[in-house]
Fold this protein.
Amino acid sequence: MLFSKYELSITLTVGAILFALLAQVALLNSFLNVITDPSILLLMVAVSLIPILGGIMEESGLMLELVQK
């Protein structure tokens, strides 16, 4: 189970959809509520900026300086 041949993101997505169907949740309505929620959009922006910040720190040498301290 630890080394599965399926991608983790696909497995989690399929599992979430199956649980939503079993719980009889309004799937489309819930999806639209999540996508249009400002806090979720801000979280998406913040998470997508983390690798960019890491790349900038790597190129400028700040990452090495941070690790050494």
Q: What stands out?
A: The chain has four helices and no strands. The CA atoms of residues 53 and 59 lie 10 Å apart. The helical segments are 8-22, 27-36, 38-60, 62-68. Residues 27-69 form one domain.
